[in-house]
């Protein structure tokens, strides 16, 4: 079934149809990642319609609910995670931001790739990140945020982690040693990464996993 059909069913908020198409495509053995890409494309259209004021907040929430149900189906299709833990991640959507669809996909991709992920949820207070990093001593702190306001929350979180001595001071020339900070979400760019003093950023979940693996390989060599 053509990917356009799923994209438009999601964009038009046709819940039953979107789920049915996704099920059929997954049952036919199609790569679940292709289905995931179409969800993103459909959600982008929903976002455009929201910006054009054709859709409103309840429509966004409804679209999020459809995505969540289909993500569940995708998860069932994917192979079991590796037994050995590749690394540990503390993840959360930062203070004042409640967007969790993207963050949940990040959880899902890291988990699938054999990382142990501690998901702190949404609107996570700075101190909760500090406490979780102290408790779990992760390889990576993954901060998600979709609002412009999230940039300040991310920066405050990084400041607090540095002040607590849980991550090293940021060095413009390279990566921190030890625990690294990765950011991602809707509006993240390299300028935002510098502002936040994160070690890296990615615009999608598979990119985040790839970067994390590169960091961990680097750590083994060092
Ligand atoms: C859905 C949505 C909502 C839903 C969220 C539902 C939910 N459960 O998450 C609801 C309705 C609740 C909502 C609320 C609001 N929203 Co909203 N929302 C969106 C929307 C349409 C889609 C975001 C989304 O989930 N996309 C789907 C994901 C899967 O796509 P993706 O981004 O490609 O996902 C990847 C990356 O983000 C990445 N990623 C995410 N996190 C991380 C972390 C790491 C470490 C890495 C590596 C990668 C990574 O991986 C994901 C998977 O591959 C966007 C517009 C848009 N087009 O993006 C606006 C948008 C983000 N919202 C916006 C706004 C303004 C709001 C509200 C303030 C609206 C209001 N007036 O109340 C509130 C904010 C409430 C709050 N305090 O947070 C603005 C933000 C503008 C800004 N610059 O600040 C946007 C851009 C819309 C707009 N253009 O106006 N929103």
Tally of individual helices: 9
Instruction: Count up the domains.
Output: 2
pLDDT averaged over residues: 90
Contiguous runs where pLDDT drops below 50 for at least 5 residues: none
* Backbone structural class: alpha/beta
CA(first)-CA(last) distance: 47 Å
How are the strands ordered across the major sheet?
2-1-3-4-5
Report the biggest beta sheet as strand number plus sense, adding barrel if it closes: 5 strands, parallel
Share of helix, binned: 55-70%
Second-tier CATH architecture of the largest domain: 3-Layer(aba) Sandwich
Which CATH class of the largest domain is shown?
Answer: Alpha Beta
The kinds of small molecule bound in this structure are: cobalamin
Report the portion of residues in β strands: 5-15%
| Secondary structure tally: strands | 5
* Rg computed from alpha carbons, rounded to a whole number of angstroms: 18 Å
By CATH, the topology of the largest domain is Rossmann fold
Shape: globular
CATH superfamily of the largest domain: Cobalamin-binding domain
Order of helices and strands: HHHHEHEHEHEHEH
Verbal overview:
This protein is an alpha/beta fold and 222 residues long. The chain has two domains: 3-77, Methyltransferase, Methionine Synthase (B12-binding Domains), Chain A, domain 1 (Orthogonal Bundle), CATH 1.10.1240.10; 87-221, Rossmann fold (3-Layer(aba) Sandwich), CATH 3.40.50. 56% of the residues lie in helices and 11% in strands. It is built from nine helices and five strands; from the N terminus they run ααααβαβαβαβαβα. It has helices at 3-11, 15-27, 32-51, 57-77, 101-112, 126-136, 149-163, 190-196, 205-221, and strands at 87-93, 115-119, 140-144, 180-184, 200-202. α8 links the parallel β4 (180-184) and β5 (200-202). Cobalamin binds at residues 40, 43-44, 46-47, 50-51, 57, 60-61, 64, 96-103, 105-106, 142, 144, 146-148, 182-187, 202-205, 208.
